[in-house]
Design a protein that fits this description.
The complex is a heterodimer of chains A (about 260) and B (about 375).
Chain A: H1 3-21, E1 38-50, E2 53-65, E3 71-74, E4 79-83, E5 89-93, E6 98-104, E7 143-150, E8 153-163, E9 175-183, E10 188-195, E11 199-209, E12 225-231, E13 248-253
Parallel strand pairs in A: 6-12
Antiparallel strand pairs in A: 1-2, 1-11, 2-3, 3-4, 4-5, 5-6, 7-8, 8-9, 9-10, 10-11, 12-13
Chain B: H1 6-28, E1 40-49, E2 52-53, E3 62-66, E4 69-71, E5 73-77, E6 83-90, H2 99-119, E7 128-134, E8 138-145, H3 148-159, H4 169-191, E9 215-216, E10 229-236, H5 249-257, E11 261-267, H6 273-276, H7 286-289, H8 291-299, E12 303-306, H9 314-319, E13 322-327, E14 336-343, H10 345-350, E15 355-357, E16 361-363
Parallel strand pairs in B: 6-7, 6-10, 10-11, 11-12
Antiparallel strand pairs in B: 1-2, 1-9, 1-13, 1-15, 3-4, 3-14, 5-13, 7-8, 14-16
Helix pairs in contact in B: 2-3, 5-8
Classes of the chains: A mainly beta (about 260), B alpha+beta (about 375).
């Protein structure tokens, strides 16, 4: 595969993956985990130093996970992101009563198939190795840093650090740190943070309840307009296949 | 104030006021008046027809809707204004161990800097530009200046650097840009209240600098200091987070608060034209996927995909907008209100197919 084509494919994949992650909750590695059901609040706090004084921003949301691995994350701005089985997913804009639905019907060796990379599912529940940091020097290895209690649960911490170096034209020396605290019983990263020299982002799961969510939360609400796409639907390459799949069909109304 | 300064200050103030009045009336034709004690919202609207900027429209040609309800406009201005522009340039990332990619990414870096230069082609002597670079953390490369040589030097410096980036970097850079503009306004205001060359248009002269931006004056004549418009231009080699971690809304709300337009130049490797050219309308999938494109659309800015798109005059698109004021809704502070601007049926007949670019909301204060 030529380099431009490789880049194009990579870019297309990232664009498609980006849609699944277009939210403030980060955990692609949590998708498909068959474990205890969860209902929780999520808070993300961003702090930063600027030449004009400190900056703080907090966003709150909600999280659901079913026993069979379906997840839903709601942000504070009227959007839901649902991930179902077999890589079905939907993004919902509740204000507009509109949903974008992604149906995966590709071959098993599809890069988006479960078990493939990205994302890693086991010791990397925050999906760090899936490329939080762009580029080849994204942290590959999380070092265990100890155990503590969060929300009354025993959690295990892992950290990865990096320093930008070896760049032909700089900048060198910029440092970043990732830290993730995972509740092993839940297989959930209940606290996660990353830091650069000036910015710190902390995401926390709070008020965690171990109970089954209403199955309806994993469905597109009735009456919503829906556009469906079949991502990497096994269609043979064609002259027009270098597009950003998935492409969406006409709008239909959810029954 | 010491009394002995009074005789010297009075004529100066009078001169300023006189000059202000002349400028205000020449800028705005008929200066609108605002009712005291009422917060008004300013919305800048650009009208284009087949890609060309439409001039000569009047207040009565526009309709403003606030959460769907038709609102009377209480003020109008239609003059091209000088700009304060913050250019946010993202490093192109060349992985240090990927020698094979370095030529490729060097090409991208050049591409980005060319895009930045193109974006500034329409600069006028009275415009000012600041440059901020960002990879992991932002860095002010050049404070606001009208000196084109300084701006070019800052761009050249960025063009020779590269480094990693991280989710959230776009948004932090936008915040830096907004704060830089706000600081400049505060400095200008400190330097001389009512100075005619100062300020990026605190639309509410009776208010403090930090509350500038969204609403218009509770006062009398249209503010004399609506003399500059604020704009942020992002130049990034991808327009989205990877993986996205932040919602766009906080950045959008801050840009609305500061009444600042964001335009995004996005370099993408061999973008597939048929998808890239889908309109960035709320009902399209790409609307939210393309984070910076989404932010731009919400603030009335433009999106340029380099190198495939024809490069519009981004500055003219902000400079030449019409300013409309309407009364803010009475609602809880912080409430998000969606606004839309359209031409009246009569104006549409005169300008068939005309399109309007304006911010799509505001936050109630």
């Amino acid at each position: 595969m030529s380099m431009p084509r490789t880049i194009l494919v990579l870019w297309s994949m990232l664009a498609t993956a980006g849609a699944a992650c277009a939210q403030f909750v980060l955990f692609p590695g949590d998708v498909g985990v068959r474990n205890k059901p969860i209902i929780a609040d999520v808070t993300v706090t961003v702090t930063s130093e600027t030449p004009w004084g400190p900056y703080t921003q907090t966003q709150s949301g909600k999280y659901w996970r079913s026993r069979d691995g379906k997840t839903r994350r709601d942000d504070g701005f009227g959007h839901s992101y649902i991930t179902g089985l077999n890589w079905w997913r939907a993004e919902i804009d509740h204000d507009a009563k509109m949903a974008y639905e992604f149906v995966h019907n590709g071959p098993p060796d599809n890069p988006f198939a479960k078990g493939s990379s990205p994302p890693a599912l086991n010791d990397d529940p925050a999906g760090l190795s899936a490329g939080l940091l762009e580029g080849a020097e994204a942290p590959r290895k999380l070092v265990r840093i100890g155990e503590k209690q969060i929300e009354g649960r025993k959690v295990t911490g892992r950290r990865s650090e990096g320093v930008a170096k070896g760049y032909p034209w700089g900048p060198n020396g910029d440092r970043w740190t990732y830290e993730v605290w995972t509740a092993n019983d839940l297989k959930l990263a209940v606290e996660f943070q990353y830091k650069t020299r000036l910015m710190k982002v902390v995401q926390r799961f709070e008020n965690i309840q171990e109970r089954d969510p209403d199955p309806e939360v994993f469905r597109i609400p009735k009456g919503y307009r829906v556009r469906t796409a079949y991502d990497h639907g096994g269609a043979p390459p064609s002259a027009l296949s270098n597009d950003l799949r998935p492409l969406f069909g006409d709008v239909h109304i959810q029954k | 104030m010491s009394s002995h300064f009074a005789p010297k200050r009075t004529p100066y103030c009078l001169r300023l006021l006189r000059l202000g009045a002349i400028l205000a009336f020449s800028c705005f034709g008929q200066a609108p008046r605002f009712e005291a004690g009422v917060a008004n919202v300013r919305i800048d609207a650009l009208v284009t027809q087949k890609g060309r900027i439409v001039t000569g429209l009047e207040q009565g040609d526009f309709q403003v809707r606030d959460d769907g309800e038709l609102r009377d406009t209480v003020g109008f201005a239609s003059e091209a204004l000088p700009l304060d522009v913050v250019l946010l340039c993202q490093f192109v990332h060349v992985p240090p161990n990927e020698k094979n990619y370095q030529n490729f990414f060097q090409y991208f870096s050049q591409w980005n800097m060319n895009s930045a230069s193109k974006a500034l082609e329409g600069l006028r002597p009275e415009d000012r530009v600041a440059v901020i670079s960002y990879g992991l953390d932002p860095q002010v490369e050049q404070p606001l200046t009208s000196d084109h040589a300084e701006i070019a030097a800052a761009l050249r410096r960025i063009g020779t650097r590269n480094g990693p980036t991280v989710s959230g970097a776009h948004y932090m850079a936008i915040e830096w840009g907004l704060r830089l503009l706000a600081q400049e306004r505060a400095n200008e205001q400190k330097k001389g209240e009512g100075s005619l060359t100062s300020g990026t248009g605190p639309e509410r002269p009776s208010r403090t600098p930090e509350t500038h931006g969204n609403s218009a004056a509770a006062g009398s004549v249209v503010p004399l200091k609506v003399l500059r418009r604020s704009m942020i231009i992002t130049v990034s080699w991808r327009g989205y987070n990877s993986p996205a971690m932040f919602n766009d809304e906080p950045a959008i709300f801050r840009l609305w608060e500061e009444n600042t337009v964001l335009s995004a130049i996005i370099s993408a490797p061999a973008p597939p034209a048929r998808v890239i050219r889908q309109p960035l309308e709320p009902d399209t999938f790409r609307y939210r996927l393309d984070n910076l494109g989404h932010v731009a659309a919400e603030t009335g800015g433009s999106v340029v995909y380099a190198p495939t798109d024809d490069f519009p005059d981004l500055l003219a698109r902000v400079r030449s907008g019409y300013s409309l004021w309407f009364r803010a809704a009475e609602a809880k502070p912080g409430t998000v209100r969606r606004i839309s601007v359209e031409l009246t049926e009569e104006a549409k007949k005169r300008h068939p197919g005309a399109e309007i670019r304006a911010r799509k909301g505001y936050l109630v204060r």
